[in-house]
């Protein structure tokens, strides 16, 4: 069968999903909505709904493969152009996506596919953003973080606390820069760096903000194998030396003494180590989402048209730690479908493993068949 037939089949399943989904976004009446087609994630925007039941009726009628809404609240959400909507405030939103993480597995399976490593890495990153930055540094409570799976290969965090709604673009940029470590001056953290014959004094793990983060990050970096350290650009011999003396180095860092071991060219070394740390923690936060109140983002609990999974809400960080997207976000759990599949990667959904398939006709559960069709690796037979 052809792509058009595939899309018609999936659209009717999406309509069935919305007929019983009862999605109820906070402040529905103040949001701008956008819907997409299989080809384009946002095709129509400036939509608005008076109530969740109006929204659900629309989604059940149309069955759009993508639904997004504004993190901003407006007096007149359907008014256009943007300036006439009457901005009332905007949630603070963070968008983490595995494709931004430049993982080695992505050069093997390509950007449109997502593997277990991708999903585990972006989940760990989201937990770090929540616990280490939003809660530890910014003081938000766990209950104030609205977490949802993106529906494909990432997670979103929405904060709708009164105190963030009025933040302007420059303030939002400061927040995303802080999280990304942009403009972090390492020499300020090491006042004696580069001075001959003087002990290298630096941050302690218990220090606040980036200081403590860098100290803790360096200690955990030293736990990596010499091979991993070398792959980050550290001289191979130096990496072996550091790894073998990691306990001593960690002990020194606990008291702010970063000079426990003789390291050749140490200023350059620590700078490299720290800059790696900063990037590894933060490169992934999509500044555009945090900075732009007119941005539309996936509606929580809606279908994602590239997977057939839902952008499922996650109630706590403990639930996030346990969350398995390819099982917990399955929308089409019932029935089986026949597909002709061509997919070189094995994957696990709902506890069952599928593939690889080499241009073969298989009968598999609907969720797995739809997933392959939407990933462009199968057609309905
Ligand atoms: Zn991967």
3D structure, described in words:
The chain has a 4-stranded antiparallel sheet, with no helix packed on it. A 4-stranded antiparallel sheet has the order 6-8-7-10. It has a 3-stranded antiparallel sheet with strand order 14-11-15. The longest helix is centred in the N-terminal third of the chain and has 22 residues. With 381 residues, it is of the alpha+beta class. It has 3 domains: 205 residues, DNA primase, PRIM domain; 97 residues, Helicase, Ruva Protein, domain 3, CATH 1.10.8; 49 residues, Ribosomal Protein L9, domain 1, CATH 3.40.5. About 2% of the residues have low confidence. Zinc ion (ZN) binds next to α3 and α4.
Radius of gyration: 24 Å
The assigned structural class equals alpha+beta
Contiguous runs where pLDDT drops below 50 for at least 5 residues = 279-284
Mean of pLDDT: 90
Short structural description:
By secondary structure, this protein is of the alpha+beta class. The chain has helices at residues 3-21, 52-62, 104-109, 116-137, 162-165, 169-180, 186-189, 209-221, 226-231, 236-244, 246-254, 266-282, 287-291, 317-322, 325-328, 366-374, and strands at residues 33-36, 44-47, 66-70, 72-74, 87-90, 92-97, 146-149, 154-159, 296-298, 313-314, 336-343, 347-349, 352-354, 357-365, 378-380. Strand 1 (33-36) and strand 2 form a beta hairpin.
Q: Could you name the key traits of this structure?
A:
381 residues, alpha+beta, DNA primase, PRIM domain, Helicase, Ruva Protein, domain 3, Ribosomal Protein L9, domain 1, four-stranded antiparallel sheet, globular, binds zinc ion
């Amino acid at each position: 069968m052809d792509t058009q037939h595939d899309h018609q089949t999936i659209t009717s399943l999406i309509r069935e999903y919305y007929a019983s989904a009862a999605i109820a976004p906070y402040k529905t009446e103040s949001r701008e909505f956008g819907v997409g087609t299989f080809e384009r994630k946002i095709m129509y925007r400036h939509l608005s709904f008076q109530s969740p039941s109006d929204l659900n009726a629309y989604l059940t009628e149309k069955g759009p493969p993508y639904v997004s809404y504004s993190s901003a609240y407006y007096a007149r959400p359907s008014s256009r152009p943007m300036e006439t909507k009457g901005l009332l405030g905007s949630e603070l939103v963070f968008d983490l996506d595995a494709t931004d993480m430049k993982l080695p597995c992505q050069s093997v399976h390509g950007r449109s596919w997502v593997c277990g490593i991708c999903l585990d890495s972006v989940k760990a990153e989201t937990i770090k953003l929540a616990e280490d930055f939003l809660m530890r540094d910014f003081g938000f409570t766990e209950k104030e973080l609205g977490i949802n799976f993106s529906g494909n290969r990432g997670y979103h965090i929405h904060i709708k606390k009164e105190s963030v709604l009025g933040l302007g673009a420059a303030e939002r940029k400061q927040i995303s820069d802080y999280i990304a470590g942009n403009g972090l001056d390492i020499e300020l953290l090491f006042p004696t760096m580069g001075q001959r014959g003087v002990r290298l004094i630096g941050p302690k793990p218990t220090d606040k903000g980036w200081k403590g983060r860098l100290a803790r990050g360096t200690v955990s970096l030293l736990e990596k194998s010499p091979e991993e350290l070398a792959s980050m650009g550290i001289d191979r011999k130096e990496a072996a030396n550091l790894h073998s003396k990691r306990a001593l180095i960690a002990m020194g860092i606990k008291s702010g003494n970063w000079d426990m071991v003789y390291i050749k060219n140490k200023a350059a070394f620590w700078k490299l180590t720290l800059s790696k740390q900063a990037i590894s923690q933060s490169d992934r936060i999509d500044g555009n989402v945090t900075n732009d109140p007119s941005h539309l983002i996936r509606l929580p609990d809606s279908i994602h048209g590239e997977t057939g999974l839902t952008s499922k809400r996650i109630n706590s960080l403990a639930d996030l730690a346990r969350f398995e997207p390819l099982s917990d976000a399955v929308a089409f759990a019932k029935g089986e479908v026949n597909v002709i599949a061509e997919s070189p990667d094995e994957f696990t959904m709902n506890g069952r493993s599928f593939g690889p398939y080499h241009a073969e006709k298989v009968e598999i559960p609907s969720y797995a068949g739809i997933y392959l069709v939407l990933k462009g690796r199968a057609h309905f037979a």
